[in-house]
Design a protein that fits this description.
This protein is an alpha/beta fold. The chain is built from four helices and five strands. The chain has helices spanning 27-40, 66-76, 88-91, 95-108, and strands at residues 4-11, 50-56, 80-85, 112-115, 120-121. The chain is globular, with a radius of gyration of 14 Å.
Length: 132
């Protein structure tokens, strides 16, 4: 099995419309998915299978989120090679921990990290945190 591309989608309960009108997914989650799909569309480097990790209704202030933990475990096992998020705040709002993920954890497991709207791509280096 080859490694896959991972979309990580997150929205806190306070920001979403989860559960309204019997919705099982927030509009923002749908919007994040479409943005990431558009980003990888027609890019030959991103033709792999896509795994989605969705934490709809979870705060970004800590990393105790079920889909996030599953994604990190899959990265450790070599199941994913690239993680894409809409922006850095989707990964997390604890900027020290987010920086550790980008600078230490992801490189340790040979995982490329891309925050589309922030222009962050670890393939180009991630030492500029001015956008955080």
């Amino acid at each position: 099995m080859s490694a896959a591309l991972a979309f990580y989608l997150r929205l806190s309960m306070a920001d979403g419309d989860l559960g309204k009108d019997n919705k099982d997914e927030s509009n923002s989650i749908e919007n994040q998915r479409e943005l990431l799909k558009s980003f990888v569309e027609n890019k030959e480097e991103f033709t792999d299978e896509v795994f989605e990790y969705i934490d709809d209704g979870y705060t970004g202030t800590n990393f105790n989120r079920p889909a996030f933990r599953r994604m990190i475990e899959d990265a450790k096992k070599g199941r994913i090679h690239t993680i894409l998020v809409k922006d850095l705040s989707r990964l997390g709002r604890d900027y020290l921990q987010t920086g550790m993920l980008m600078e230490i954890t992801f490189p340790q497991y040979d995982v490329r990290f891309i925050a589309v709207n922030d222009g962050v791509d670890s393939a180009n280096g991630v030492s500029d945190f001015s956008g955080i």
